[in-house]
Amino acid sequence: MVICRHVEWQVSFEAGELRADAYRNGSDKVFASDIAITHGDPVAIQLETDWPLSKSLVADNSDTALVAIRVVDSNGHVVRSVSPDSSLELTFALSGEGRIIGKGNGDPSNHEPDKPENSTSAKHSIWNGL
Description:
The structure is a single chain. By secondary structure, the chain is mainly beta. Helices cover 0% and strands 31% of the residues. It is built from no helices and six strands. The protein has strands spanning 17-23, 30-37, 44-51, 66-72, 89-93, 121-125. Strands 1-2 form a two-stranded antiparallel ribbon. The chain is globular, with a radius of gyration of 19 Å. The relative contact order is 0.17.
């Protein structure tokens, strides 16, 4: 039996939602799924704390937070067509307690430093809306 790790289909474009479900060993139970939703034009930059899950921090010099920055449309969908090649740059700053200790965009071919320019401001390219 040949194990297939990558499958690809050509589909015609139609605005809306595309859902892919994966099944294992002929089961009727969905093993994994993903949804792609058509997005509109970019209208905002959204920040969300991905970690800690409690969304609560203590300014005690030991708590850390992972903040995701996303370019979104008017419905809050990530605009993936924004900078698919990491060519657009985002500048951000932090005020108040805390400091920026790292940055990144998920692009495996991006070689920008993960360390910020200083502890209160940084620049980094956007990749696929992230």
